[in-house]
Amino acid sequence: MTASPETLSDIVIANRILAYEEVVDAFGHISIRDPANPEQYLLSRARAPELIEADDIVTFAQTGEAIDIGDKRPYSERMIHGAIYEARPDVNVVIHNHSYEVIPFAVTDVPIRPVTHTCAPIGADIPVWDMRDKFGETNHLVVTMEQGRDLADTLGDRSIALMKRHGCVVAGATVQETVMKAIYLQVNARLQLQSMQIGTPDYLTDVEIAACTEMQQSPISLDRAWEAWCRRAEKAR
Ligand code: MN
Prior knowledge:
alpha+beta, L-fuculose-1-phosphate Aldolase
């Protein structure tokens, strides 16, 4: 393990935040590209996110082989992470989750689209990957690099892809930005569904999405949100 204490702390707190905000439950994970070796990534051993400590973080090769795992068990879906890092040199953080509020948009033909300014960073172009197209009827877990690469193909140059009947992936350059997108994807799903129950949503336009995203991802918003999420997650311990 060559990761700095700061990187380890980032990945541990990000896991706790995603658990506290209920983006992940016992399942779901977040990885960081290894700052010391871009062809490796750091990810916890298979453990519920809210329980993860620095000692649980393991280094993986991009193709999914654990480098320093000892007798611990890896997540079966770690290939999601390696395949996205392989395809996307601009991505340093990958989150995979099963947010149950997002699932309705991953099983119907209703696209998810920002309904409010804080949710703008999720963007308006969110594809849905259907594992069934190439791999038939499976248990829906992404357990091979071939499956991971197919998901990465659907993600393309975007930051979010939904996974039909399963969940989603969120990719980004920094931990803070990627966690923000994962949290607000779930918030938007809730608000969009509520809006559709009482009428027809009047979504943000593409120009508004760009303007609001710039604001939400600037330090004045992102640092403030990150500090609050850290505090909420710490208090819950
Ligand atoms: Mn999964």
